[in-house]
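Homework-ish question, so no full write-ups if that breaks the rules, but can someone show me the predicted structure for this set?
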Amino acid sequence: MPVRSGKRTISIIGRVGIVSSAGVAGHKEGEGPLASYFDSVYSDDMLGQKSWEKAESRLQTNAAQEALRKAGLQPYDIDVIFAGDLLNQCISSTFGLRSLEIPYLGQYGACSTMAQTMLMAALFVDSGACNRAMAVTSSHFCSAERQFRLPIEYGGQRTPTAQWTVTGAGAAVIDDSGNGCIIKDVTIGKITDYKIKDANNMGAAMAPAAADTILNYMIDTNTKPYDYDLILTGDLGFIGSELLIKILQREGMDISMVHNDCGKMIFDRERQDVHGGGSGCGCCGSVFCSYIMQQLNSHKLKNILFVATGALMSPTSSQQGESIPGIAHLLHIVS
Amino acid sequence: MPVRSGKRTISIIGRVGIVSSAGVAGHKEGEGPLASYFDSVYSDDMLGQKSWEKAESRLQTNAAQEALRKAGLQPYDIDVIFAGDLLNQCISSTFGLRSLEIPYLGQYGACSTMAQTMLMAALFVDSGACNRAMAVTSSHFCSAERQFRLPIEYGGQRTPTAQWTVTGAGAAVIDDSGNGCIIKDVTIGKITDYKIKDANNMGAAMAPAAADTILNYMIDTNTKPYDYDLILTGDLGFIGSELLIKILQREGMDISMVHNDCGKMIFDRERQDVHGGGSGCGCCGSVFCSYIMQQLNSHKLKNILFVATGALMSPTSSQQGESIPGIAHLLHIVS
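A: Not a homework solution, just the prediction itself:
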């Protein structure tokens, strides 16, 4: 049964754990440093589908089915599924998970979705509202690029701060069997707006939200950055990560020695020409559900904060002169 | 603390209630049968803003502030806000609720959002994850029409089955003080697909989802339609409502004498030329949070099921030949 700890943080009292997870990725991600950790890498980014949107749905289907398979479960063993993505009206999730026939609660947290869906699943399980839940998200470079920016065929020059939307998906199965790594606390993010307007500099738009959530978590739990093996954000990329470290330094908090970011980890900056790093729901979705979960399960990581960040904008809001508000949700996970 | 009752239904054990709510609406809705029940009716559908999208955000701001005012609360009295809407990347909610600075969990349930956000709020409060939560949603005829269908200026002929997106918003404050009408049970919907492809016949696409959720709720709770004063769906409109009654009749269940639908109630079918009736998150948002809540608070209604339905499609999914899956979430509410 969850209990509020301080102003913003909720402690999970039962032994609620991530019993299984799967991260799948596209061919560019499969040429990056984490290639060997993904559960599947697809050489064909269409995944045999007729559109990029359908391909992205298939990423979710495959990640969800692989997570179920690894746990020895069937879809009917799951009481509720939390999922979301970047596409208009979250269609990757609807069409990707439709065939599973699991009660469904669609989430919208932009690139923070992996953390948002996992914190929902953890709270539902801990409260008794369900016995077992799933969290799923995805993104696809081609479906995101044409929806948020420009037609792929246009071949536009990317600005130096632009991030590369990851083609990938993550899925996690959460229950209170006591197995797997345990979710101890969650902190729900606030919409945080530093009035950044450059849709090609998402890291800068999201860093203040990550700083706000991390600061509030540390206050609520009376802990310090070096109490953790890793403070993993996603997806601030190279520029947003630097900014996060600077914002927190101004607040008297140094996370530099324990911080990493999924958007920095998934691509090789020198070799893969991704400018600001990776982004998209599928970035921390695939990185957390494969590499990070494997590090936790093998106890190479024992005590981490996972802080996924999202930029809550649309092309329409940017065209109408709006700034890009960010949000960041946090989970404290121990192995 | 929530407890599972049967396969799909979750019973809320504490006295979790809707302590305050507000429904606001545009000028056309203000000429309909429910005009006198809305907390505000705006003669200017732009609400003094520069775009329809910003006007829709303002609907959420106003509904949320009015619900807080009626409860004598400030934004910092709310631990978490659940909100969503129909616009791409749910920007009405982000920009409408940004200034409140309340921890935020974005929801996407299309027109089922009022029920989805309220069931989330109720479960979070009952579990102890928060003390007080809000549920908010909106829609706007003009922002929806140009995003989902055609430019308003085009003046296209509407098909006879088309529904009219409501300009309106609803907001509800939920806590466990024991005040207000009480949320007893919730049933989470499944993605239900009867392969309807006509984006101008949403009622038909959503009726099977409503039938599935109602049937499962009745099985889980061992109750019958006539145990309730009202089974209120939203927003099936005229065509979807008839279809729902027929689908349930085939399953041996007659709801015809206790059924009504927010999409049927909000407009005058003869006088207002709305074809299939009202639709949009703001339809059941505004109707439930004003008229229905007033009927509950004055004990004219004592025991109802509120079953909001959503169509989980986008223009892109329809253009790519996909069908329109529906979903329906249910709350059992007593006064």
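Now go work out the reasoning yourself. Hint: Chain B has two domains: 14-175, 181-334.
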